[in-house]
Design brief:
Blueprint: E1 2-8, H1 21-28, E2 32-38, E3 50-51, E4 61-62, H2 64-72, H3 79-83, E5 98-108, H4 111-118, E6 122-126, E7 132-133, H5 135-140, E8 144-147, H6 157-168, H7 178-182, E9 201-202, E10 205-206, H8 216-234, H9 236-249
Parallel strand pairs: 1-2, 1-6, 4-7, 5-6, 5-8
Antiparallel strand pairs: 3-4, 9-10
Helix pairs in contact: 4-6, 8-9
Length: 250
């Protein structure tokens, strides 16, 4: 069973969007595990989990002592362990999980990253807050710094939900029509083509005639060409990757 471990000082943020729709239903059916570790339960300095940075500066940093206790709790008889005791390999596999920490310094994750994570045992996420975390946490526990875009949030919780949702939807059986997953944007470094539904004419704008023809071969060709055109126009960086990948196949 695929599992996500979340270290956060705001556990009430979860499950959030992970508790609704197909992913939420799968969570309730125990088709994947969400394990929340509340960092505030592991104070290290005068009942605090953070402290001022050496060398001065604004903000507070998560203490490595707090994270050490929180991480070690994964192997204790905690409430979360009892809830998910059906997954007997859960804690044995934790060391093999992909570990990520959201940071503006990190590389941006892409669809291939999510596909790789979804095919692994699971994901461990450290959600930073305020000024961040002690660097030694990232170094010792081998967290990779990653980003979901060139902007800054107050903490990593929203980013964690986004990445976990992207991984879980790729798990077998989560999405009813697996073909829809395979046709996603970014699957082959192409953006998805435009799509339409009834009515065939809206505000004097008609659905492309080819989509009403019933000729599925021509429709697929039209949609593929449209994906290429949209990618060239809106994401020339992705288009360059698509061209490069296809040149390797020649």
């Amino acid at each position: 069973m695929w599992q996500a471990n979340i270290f956060t000082s705001f556990p009430d943020a979860f499950p959030g969007s992970l508790g609704v729709s197909l992913i939420g239903k799968a969570l309730k059916r125990n088709e994947w595990c969400l394990n929340i570790v509340d960092l505030k339960k592991f104070p290290a300095h005068n009942d605090r989990i953070d402290s001022y940075p050496y060398g001065g500066g604004v903000g507070m940093l998560l203490s490595p002592l707090t994270f050490e206790m929180a991480f070690n709790s994964l192997n204790s008889s905690s409430e979360n362990e009892r809830i998910f005791s059906e997954n007997e390999q859960k804690f044995k596999r934790t060391q093999k999980f992909k570990r990520i920490y959201f940071s503006p310094r990190g590389r941006q994750l892409n669809q291939k990253d999510l596909a790789d994570i979804s095919q692994s045992a699971g994901l461990t996420v450290l959600c930073g807050r305020y000024e961040g975390v002690d660097q030694r946490i990232l170094d010792y526990y081998k967290f990779e710094e990653v980003s979901i875009g060139d902007f800054v949030l107050l903490g990593g919780e929203v980013a964690a939900m986004a990445i976990i949702e992207g991984c879980v939807r790729l798990l077998p059986g989560i999405v009813g029509d697996q073909q829809s997953v395979q046709n996603d944007s970014f699957q082959e470094n192409l953006l998805e083509h435009d799509q339409y539904t009834k009515p065939s004419v809206f505000k004097n704008i008609a659905v492309p005639e080819i989509l009403l023809s019933g000729n599925h071969q021509k429709i697929r060709s039209f949609q593929n060409d449209l994906s290429k055109m949209i990618t060239m126009k809106k994401r020339p960086d992705l288009w360059a990757k698509y061209v490069q990948d296809n040149m390797k196949l020649i």
